[in-house]
Amino acid sequence: KFYEGVLGLKVLGEFGEGVWIEYEIGSNTLAIGSVGDEWKPSSDGTSVALEVDDFEGAIKHLKEAKIPFDTENVESPVCRMAVVHDPDGNKIIIHKLKST
Predict the structure, then answer these.
(1) How far is Cα 93 from Cα 49, in angstroms, rounded to an integer?
(2) Is pLDDT of 18 > 80?
(3) Whether 82 contacts 66, CB under 8 Å
(4) CB 64 within 8 Å of CB 100
(5) 3-class secondary structure for 50-74?
(6) Which residues are within 8 A (CB) of 30 and not within 5 positions of it... i.e. 6 or more apart?
């Protein structure tokens, strides 16, 4: 259970045994669905970005969990970010917004 065990997200609800699952992220919800073979995860596909309070701590935690990184530390004009994949190949961007 990557999202619960590694990312520490709380399950709000699950429907259809893995077809649709919703996680609590503060006052928001992250929903992940499986829509069939025609929508396979890939490096060219979509991604989700999750903002963290402690970027260095999050990166350390992911490394300790032996999660492989596509990109470890990128500095953009608006944030610092790293890119990992969940076990199904979905791209996840971990980022920390810069102070304004």
Answers:
(1) 4
(2) no
(3) no
(4) no
(5) EECCCHHHHHHHHHHCCCCEEEEEE
(6) 3, 9, 22, 23, 48, 50
- Backbone phi and psi for residue 62, each to the nearest 5 degrees, phi listed first: -65, -40
Handedness of CA 43, 61, 75, 9 (dihedral sign): positive
pTM above 0.90, yes or no: no
Nearest to 92 by CA among 34, 10, 37, 32: 32
Which domains are seen in the chain, by residue range?
Answer: 1-38 (no CATH), 40-100 (3.10.180.10)
pLDDT for 29: 93
Q: What strands lie across the sheet with 47-51, from one edge to the other?
A: 47-51, 91-97, 79-85, 69-75
Six token digits for residue 96: 């920390």
